């Protein structure tokens, strides 16, 4: 009976999806604006190099991206301008392809070496595990010939008992068109990195001796800041910009940011702007820059085709907060930006070639390598069949089709079980950042497992018998102490309001324009025309800071338990201790008070394993219908 109902629901979903497919018309695209220096930007790829198999909007793999770069380089040559390619960190933690290898990210790093990046910077995910950091240091960074930047990151070296620079502090290079670039690379400072990682806050970084070296530089035409840091509301970035403006009052500054997984563009002043290019290989960012006086056409062609704009702008009063200077922005011809959807059709559109000419030798080779790697990691083997789509930020957290709701109400209580304590009242508490994506209806395998939750090192511990007077206030403080979120990714990823009409995505009424599909609709400092593909917005709901499954707990206040077991992951323990100690007003709880709670002989007891364990028991292994 249950199965039949499921099948009915499933086929209904398929029908609805098919209808959507018919209703959704062809895409409408905006042209890119080319400048003198142009940049293709990736960030927060988190291992999605094989593309999004279930989502046509982001379906290209890294090989197709490389073909795209090849064609864009060709175009740049024809237009007689410069094209750079930049990445701003967090290369892995997010798919089976990146995280099933040992060390995690080692295969994807090898694949990424085929992308002709001009500048790269580390992200926080390069710095969580000593083996990842070491592998990146020895086997990835040397491939970039001094263009892997880590201005504020050092790595502890056991042999010499000292810290060595993780990447270059800065790089200076000339483009083919005579633009001298000073490039810096920062990771927004965070705690929670491994002991080997030292990430200096901006204040301290700017006091280092190498900063004095760059202050002396006189012939810099463009400052390129590659930052694993959001382009808006980052006090560290503000500090850096203020400081740079003091030394380089008139130099154009282009920031490329990341970390918070959104599309965004910030205008700091007439000659400084920042681009942030989303997440998970959904977005290729495009930044173009005009008005570089040193730019020389290599064919000695007149500059009139790409005019150089003179600047009469008064210098900005930098005692004011940098971010307030948006108002001063008067000359939009200096910068332009686009957010390119990561798919073949879009790549072809912008690179102006025919489909059959699109794949380059380098690109096809890389696509093959990715496909082989996926096979070798058994990513194609089915683990289970998801009965419906479980949404991520696009559905309310408490909706029955929310991935968070699935974990909170089903997966945690039904998989994280300790025989000796399962009958006792307990809370299973996980930070929402532990869940990274939704699950599509249909067959899924190891890749999807990691896409939902990549934290395979995260195992579960218990703090036994915590008195009720502490526990009762815990949910409030988990949400409001701010502590669960600060070491984590921000929980608001898109800047659309939470209150978006949720039926927008599923509506069958015709969109206003005949040619609009659902996807990103970005509002940034430059306006609403940044997305290369015109979309209707997908709603976004705040996920909050944590999930809590309350097991065997009667919430009737008169019948509350006297004490409650708290179960959580290694990652959350220090944060939970902090909050608990705040609640009792002294340092009562330490790491040593937590005991192992969930351990399996087969080793499948981490956050990543839960979905598979659950699917094995409660879902069909193979999908009985075709999608
Ligand atoms: C770091 O990586 C290098 C090169 O892969 C390896 O030889 C060395 O043993 C690693 N060190 C640690 C501490 O893992
Ligand atoms: C979900 O949460 C919101 C806000 O707390 C609430 O208004 C709504 O009724 C809840 N919906 C469900 C299905 O529980
Ligand atoms: C159950 O919890 C107890 C207490 O923490 C622990 O000693 C034991 O190893 C756990 N059992 C399993 C199978 O994880």
Automatic annotation (TrEMBL):
GO biological process, one term: nucleotide catabolic process
Domain Calcineurin-like phosphoesterase: 38-262
Residues covered by the Putative 5'-nucleotidase C-terminal domain: 389-575
Signal peptide annotation: 1-21
Domain of life: Eukaryota
A GO-annotated cellular component: cytosol
Keyword Signal: yes
UniProt keyword list: Signal
One Pfam family in the UniProt entry: Metallophos
Keyword field contains Signal: yes
Protein's name in the database: 5'-nucleotidase, NT5E family
């Amino acid at each position: 009976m249950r199965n039949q109902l499921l099948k009915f629901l499933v086929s209904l979903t398929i029908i609805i999806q098919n209808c959507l497919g018919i209703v959704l018309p062809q895409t409408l695209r905006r042209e890119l604006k080319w400048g003198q220096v142009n940049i293709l930007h990736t960030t927060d790829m988190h291992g999605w190099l094989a593309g999004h198999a279930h989502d046509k909007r982001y379906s290209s793999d890294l090989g197709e991206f490389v073909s795209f770069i090849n064609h864009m380089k060709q175009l740049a040559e024809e237009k007689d301008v410069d094209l750079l390619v930049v990445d701003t960190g967090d290369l892995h933690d997010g798919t089976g392809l990146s995280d099933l290898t040992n060390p995690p990210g080692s295969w994807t790093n090898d694949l990424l070496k085929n992308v002709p990046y001009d500048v790269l910077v580390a992200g926080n995910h390069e710095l969580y595990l000593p083996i990842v950091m070491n592998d990146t240091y020895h086997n990835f960074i040397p491939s970039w010939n001094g263009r892997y930047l880590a201005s504020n990151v050092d790595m502890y070296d056991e042999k010499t008992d000292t810290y060595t620079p993780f990447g270059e502090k800065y790089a200076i290079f000339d483009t083919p068109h005579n633009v001298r670039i000073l490039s810096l690379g920062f990771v927004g400072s965070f705690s929670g990195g491994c002991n080997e990682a030292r990430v200096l806050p901006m204040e301290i970084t700017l006091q280092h001796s190498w900063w004095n070296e760059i202050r002396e530089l006189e012939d810099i035409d463009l400052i390129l800041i590659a930052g694993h840091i959001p382009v808006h509301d980052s006090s560290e970035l503000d500090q850096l910009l203020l400081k740079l403006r003091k030394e380089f009052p008139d130099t154009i500054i282009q920031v490329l940011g990341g970390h918070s997984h959104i599309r965004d563009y910030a205008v700091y002043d007439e000659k400084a702007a920042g681009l942030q290019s989303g997440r998970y290989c959904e977005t290729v960012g495009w930044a173009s820059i005009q008005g570089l006086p040193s730019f020389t056409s290599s064919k000695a062609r007149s500059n009139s085709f790409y005019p150089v704009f003179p600047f009469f702008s008064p210098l900005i009063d930098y005692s004011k907060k940098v971010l307030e200077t948006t108002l001063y922005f008067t000359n939009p011809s200096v910068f332009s930006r686009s957010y390119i959807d990561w798919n073949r059709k879009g790549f072809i559109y912008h690179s102006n070639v025919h489909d059959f000419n699109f794949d380059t030798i380098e690109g096809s080779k890389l696509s093959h390598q990715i496909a082989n790697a996926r096979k070798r990691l058994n990513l194609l083997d089915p683990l289970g069949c998801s009965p419906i789509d479980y949404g991520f930020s696009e559905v309310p957290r408490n909706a029955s089709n929310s991935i968070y709701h699935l974990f909170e109400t089903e997966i945690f209580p039904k998989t994280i079980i300790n025989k000796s304590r399962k009958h006792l009242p307990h809370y299973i508490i996980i930070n929402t950042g532990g869940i990274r994506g939704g699950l599509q209806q249909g067959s899924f395998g190891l890749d999807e497992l990691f896409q939902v939750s990549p934290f395979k090192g995260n195992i579960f511990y218990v703090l036994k018998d915590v008195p009720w007077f502490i526990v009762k206030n815990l949910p409030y403080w988990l949400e409001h102490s701010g502590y669960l979120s600060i070491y984590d990714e921000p929980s608001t990823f898109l800047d659309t309001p939470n209150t978006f009409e949720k039926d927008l995505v599923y509506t069958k009424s015709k969109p206003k324009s005949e040619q609009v599909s659902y996807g990103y609709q970005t509002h940034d400092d430059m306006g609403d025309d940044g997305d290369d593909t015109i979309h209707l917005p997908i709603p976004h709901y705040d996920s909050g800071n944590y999930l809590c499954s309350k097991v065997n707990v009667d919430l009737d206040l008169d019948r509350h338990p006297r004490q409650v077991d708290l179960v959580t992951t290694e990652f959350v323990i220090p944060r939970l201790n902090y909050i608990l100690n705040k609640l009792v007003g002294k340092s009562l709880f330490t790491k040593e008070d937590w005991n192992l709670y969930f351990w399996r002989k087969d080793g499948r007891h981490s956050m990543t394993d839960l979905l598979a364990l659950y699917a094995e028991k409660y879902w069909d292994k193979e999908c009985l219908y075709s999608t």
